[in-house]
Amino acid sequence: MSPNTCWLCKIFRAEENGISSKVSLEEALQWSQSFEKLITSKHGPMIYKTYLKTEHSDENIEFWLACEAYKKITSQRKRISVARKLFTSYIQPQAPNEINIDSPARKVIIANIQEPTQSCFDEAQSIIYMHMERDSYPRFLESKFYQKLKHSLQTNGN
User: Which value, to the nearest 10 degrees, does the dihedral of the CA atoms of residues 92, 115, 119, 94 take?
Assistant: First the structure.
């Protein structure tokens, strides 16, 4: 398959012209030390999200990042609005970006959605973190996507 028709190549090229050009080799190498280093680094979440798109599981990182932003909301009115959006996008059955969480976690959110607290998505967020850490993160580290990024950074002396 030529690089012009490879969908993975197109995604990677698009990222090379965007965020991956801002990644340092040092940062990229730190991602292999732990999932925590990947997810908390400056560019890691967006590179990881690009990879997850290739697996059709980018809803996981989107939900996790949305929860991080949600926790910072101080206005109760805004918290209610955002909580409902998170619920309809990721939690409710048949949601457009439904995440894979267990029934008890889903029931807790349903019970708390009318008056959501800062921590009402914590259990679901922890489950998704665990899914990513155990499942997609090891695949990310072994992927051609990550290997090509590291090679590109090493070659360019970035």
Answer: 0
Q: Taking Cα atoms as reference points, which of 50, 58, 62 lies closest to residue 143? A: 50
* Residue 46: pLDDT band with limits 50, 70, 90: very high
Closest among 22, 51, 17 to 158, alpha carbons compared = 22
* Contact call for residues 149 and 46 (beta carbons, < 8 A): no
Phi then psi dihedrals of residue 117, to 5 deg: -100, 175
113 or 138, which is more confident? Answer: 138
What's the pLDDT at 20? 55
Domains in the chain (CATH in brackets) are: 14-156 (1.10.167.10)
Phi, psi (rounded to 5 degrees) for 107: -65, -35
Confidence of residue 22 (pLDDT cuts 50, 70, 90): confident
